[in-house]
Amino acid sequence: MADQNVYPPSPDFVKRACVQGMEGYRELYQQAESQPEQFWGALAERELSWSRQWSHVFEWNPPFVRWFVDGKINVSYNCLDRHLATHRKNKVAILWEGEPGDQRMISYQELHRLVCRFANVLKNRGLKTGDRAIIYMGMVPELPVAMLACARLGITFSVVFGGFSAEALKARIQDLEAQIVITCDGAWRRGKEVRLKQTVDEAVADCPTVREIIVHKRTGGDVPMQAGRDFWWSDLEAGTSESCPAEELDSEHPLYVLYTSGTTGKPKGIVHTTGGYLLGVHMTTKWVFDLRDEDTYWCTADIGWVTGHSYIVFGPLSNGATSVMYEGAPDYPQPDRFWRIIEKYRINIFYTSPTAIRAFIRQGDQWPNRHDMSSLRVLGSVGEPINPAAWEWYYKTIGRERCPIVDTWWQTETGAIMISPLPGAVPCKPGSASLPLPGILADVVDLQGNPVGTNREGFLIVRRPWPSMFRTLWKDPKRYEEQYWQRIEGVYMTGDAARRDEDGYFWVLGRVDDVMNVSGHRLSTMELESALVRHPAVAEAAVVGKPHEITGQAVAAFVTLKAGNWDHRDLAEDLRRWVAHEIGSFAKPEQIRFTDALPKTRSGKIMRRLLREIVTSNAVAGDVTTLEDLSVVTRLSAQHDDES
Ligand code: 7RM
Predict the structure, then answer these.
(1) pTM listed for this prediction
(2) How many structural domains is the chain composed of?
């Protein structure tokens, strides 16, 4: 710890920054803490366009909160219409590059037109405020167009990541009781077509609420269209009006639901609403990325995850930024695709994940070194803790020691960035997300809610509601209350462990529950285990995260089999395919070990902690006194890695 590097912003950077120096940061933080109503009220008034003023800034009936009570606002209006009366009307809003190399530069005027026309399509199909849409598309501009069109009308949407299988898609459509699915024929990934419409067809077979499917043509692949149910986007759009007034929506109208893994097999529908969410993503985009009007900004996330919602679509567009969107894989056709994009469009702000960074490190410095990336000014990281070695590489090899790195800690639930350096204010320490943003009263506590001491490990919590926080779980307010607000009375429990150092910096250590993080995708052990035991050969399964150089964690599965004559090698392959089918390919176990028993406590709980030790070090050093049968562990530790 003692010889740890600290990187303060350069004096030049500070001079031009939106929040300047530690004094600037402290002043904002102090205002937000001591007078939250005035602080957020003034920002909402200055930064957003409302069609009706609110009566109260917030109303806190723990654990439920409402922000900008009685206010009326529209997210699509704030991301589009209000820029049309400014110098931004012909500015590029979405700068898109397809995987095959095609390009589109869509100005704010043009994006507004596309959104209005598609909103009219939805209206013509009979959809209205309060209805629900599922969006299952690849990374094409029509994806944000669909989101903004829904937002314009108050149709609550849920974007489902294109990597999810038909089963996973079906569960989300059913839970949301969606009337419509918006999709593409396919998407390009590493030169191959991912057939999205085919997956939708499989999924909707069991979804009686779905009346229609709208299909945007991206790949031109062969897709069967069911008459009366399936429609091409372009056919419906032909001849529709370019004008569509934005609905004046209640500040608490549900904007979207995003499903995320919890500790049970059933994914949770995180509900985000309108006014507070927009203010949160708007302000954090400005503060954290130090966004300037002339910047070209690129967040490499997929819009299927919250990072894409908040920091490709709503945060940047609300600020009138140029947001870059790339369709395909980072290593296609070669490992320098990202660096080519940075050079070609002179990207100024680049926001990616530790998983991606670790993959780049492995490919070698020759790939970034052959590109001119001097346009870069701010680098960002999100999704997992970034290990100091990867941080240093990112700083030197990508930022050429000129760019602050904002290590942004937040969650699907928090809606917006919570803990991160402000690049012109807070000195960076590699591996630490540093200090909480204004209005975020974060702390590290024990189970009684008492702060633990300096450098002590504890639960990361937040004491006060903030504008962009989720409001509830879709159709499950009870689970919302129990899971997030009652474990430690009266505070928001993040589910992460953390410690604070002598400077008050937060070091996030990872999840305290049984949730894994593979390539920045959240996966619950329960979800994976329930998928595995649905396979006819499997008796029991236990899944743990195994540290992985590139993806952070990889899925390791321990499986006991039903009686029968199984060929382990074939079966392991079959189980991987099975998981890909049940959840998605990203969830495939890297390692499957067959065993005759799982280590369990006397009360029958699988001791995943021991399995974690086994996959990490092939030995068990921790406490085994609650174990029912010690020989199980001895046998498992003696097995080799590839013994499947
Ligand atoms: C944005 C996002 C949330 C979980 C969170 C953490 C982990 C995310 C960081 C991080 C350490 C970071 N939403 N996490 N960012 N851990 N440092 N900068 O990732 O809902 O999908 O995941 O991800 O465990 O609780 S998420």
Answers:
(1) 0.89
(2) 3
